[in-house]
Design goal:
binds adenosine-5'-diphosphate; VC0802-like; binds magnesium ion; 8-stranded mixed sheet; 6-stranded antiparallel sheet; alpha/beta; binds aspartic acid; 2 domains
């Protein structure tokens, strides 16, 4: 059996009307083939729950209770709207989720200490509840569906709050939990973003992690296809919030999609593609509001590559760290010592460039920067610049057409570039510039390489 895995993001389950659309789309698919649904928390809920955790940490018991009541009321209202008849069972499950959340948050408030493990237990509730609602909504609309607890299906390591799925253990668990449901002709519905360690401790996969849940389950179940249903028509040529007239990229390669996600195309979690690659499982991005659209198809081989570039991506508000060797040259072993510091502080760097005496790196996550700076100063001079951004142009054609990189840089004429990088894959050209220059940079690149009708290539 090669099921279809369909993941619905937060806006796709934001309210009763959205959930009804999901039910229609999933029911139509389930009439054709076995379906696994992966569901995000209703949009905004993960943020609310994280804020509630912060309130608990500061001991603000009233603040916690009023937030929790708000989230509870939203779920209650959605259930009330979807189910005309009593939904006592579902409401009892949801209310026991809130009881558990309250008891975790109470102890956080007493201790004024929030462990990552505790935060994961709280945020996981968003997906555990939304997926239960979707499963019940499907069943009540006449499509047999079974809700599965993601913690029995998706097995991860214990790195809170960004746990890494373990594919072999997930394959065994999914075989045990999901396959019997599909074999019985029912839709299997599971919350995204959530997993558990082998000994059952609740974990989460990091922000945007429901995409990763879908692709890991897809790989574990040898899916026919993994579909990411969201609020845009597919992978677009640029972030539509930054650029007017971004168009759908109809077909792109696994590598292109991975690089776009890595460099900031939020429509896909950066690790989504990896589990799909091994089995060559196609990944499709589709719009819940326009289910008949073709979306974007991501596969191993792409033949149509007529365009110069595939898409642009950007990552905003990142930090650049310049490390300059206090000796005159980048002595043997210097880079190793620099990167060891980042490793010790569990911080990854995205873009790296070097000169004879210095190395520049960008960081997305600067929470440990103080300690990193202190350790680096033991071996080098260090300069930190915040408020920077990464802009990347991605396309397999960058490998074939050596003039493309030049034309890209020329298009950015007048905008000070802090770093320029083209890695071994030669599938992206990446520049680092001031964050305030991002709108202009994206607009210019998009204008020059994609609009109108992608003709100016
Ligand atoms: P979901 O809740 O469905 O997971 P996300 O908000 O995580 O949705 O991702 C979808 C959003 O990603 C879009 O609404 C869009 O604003 C943003 N986005 C950024 N870059 C791109 C891109 N290149 N193509 C499509 N969407 C993008
Ligand atoms: N709900 C989680 C988040 O908002 C995971 C996801 O939706 O992908 O980050
Ligand atoms: Mg997302």
């Amino acid at each position: 059996m090669h099921p279809l895995v369909m993941k619905f993001g937060g806006t796709s389950v934001a309210d009763a009307a959205a959930i009804s659309r999901v039910v229609r789309i999933a029911a139509a698919a389930a009439a054709r083939e076995p379906v696994v649904l992966v569901v995000s928390a209703m949009s905004g809920v993960t943020d609310e729950l994280l804020q509630t955790c912060d309130l608990a940490r500061s001991g603000n018991v009233d603040g916690v209770e009023s937030r929790i009541r708000g989230v509870e009321a939203r779920h209650g209202a959605v259930v009330g709207e979807i189910f005309r008849v009593q939904a006592d069972d579902l409401l009892a499950h949801i209310s026991s989720e809130f009881d558990e959340m309250r008891s975790v948050l109470r102890s956080v408030a007493v201790l004024r200490e929030l462990t990552q493990r505790g935060a994961d237990r709280v945020t996981a509730a968003g997906e555990l509840m939304s997926s239960r609602i979707v499963a019940a909504a499907l069943a009540s609309a006449g499509t047999p569906a079974t809700w599965l607890d993601a913690r029995r299906v998706l097995i991860t390591d214990d790195v809170h709050p960004v746990a890494l799925p373990r594919l072999d253990e997930t394959r065994t668990a999914a075989g045990r939990e999901v396959l019997p449901v599909l074999e019985a002709g029912e839709v299997a519905v599971v919350g995204g973003f959530v997993g558990a360690t082998a000994d059952g401790i609740t974990t989460t996969l990091g922000r945007g992690g429901s995409d990763l849940s879908a692709s890991v389950l897809g790989a574990a179940l040898h899916a026919r296809e993994i579909q990411i249903w969201t609020d845009v028509d597919g992978m677009l040529t640029a972030d539509p919030r930054l650029v007017d007239g971004a168009e759908v990229v109809p077909h792109l390669s696994f590598e292109e999609a991975s690089e776009l996600a890595y460099f900031g195309a939020k429509v896909l979690h950066p690790s989504t593609i990896l589990p799909a690659v091994q089995d060559g499982i196609p990944v499709r991005i589709l719009n819940t509001l326009r289910p008949d659209g073709a979306g974007s198809l991501i596969t191993r081989h792409v033949t149509s590559g007529d365009g110069a570039l595939t898409a642009l991506a950007c990552k905003r508000n990142i930090t650049v760290v310049d490390v300059t060797s206090t000796r005159m040259l980048l002595a043997h072993g210097f880079l190793r010592r620099v990167f060891e510091v980042f490793e010790q502080h569990a911080t990854s760097v995205d873009v790296v460039t070097t000169s004879e005496v210095s190395v520049s790196m960008t960081l997305d996550d600067d929470r440990r920067l103080g300690a990193i700076e202190r350790d680096l100063r033991l071996i080098a001079d260090v300069q930190v610049e915040r408020g920077m951004a990464i802009v990347s142009a991605v396309g397999d054609n960058l490998r074939r057409d050596s003039t493309l990189a030049v034309r890209l840089i020329v298009a950015l004429d007048g905008l000070p570039l802090r770093m320029v990088s083209q890695a071994a894959s030669r599938r992206n050209l990446t520049v680092v510039l001031a964050d305030r220059d991002v709108p202009a940079a994206m607009e210019r690149l998009h204008q020059k390489f994609f609009a109108p009708a992608r003709s100016a290539r």
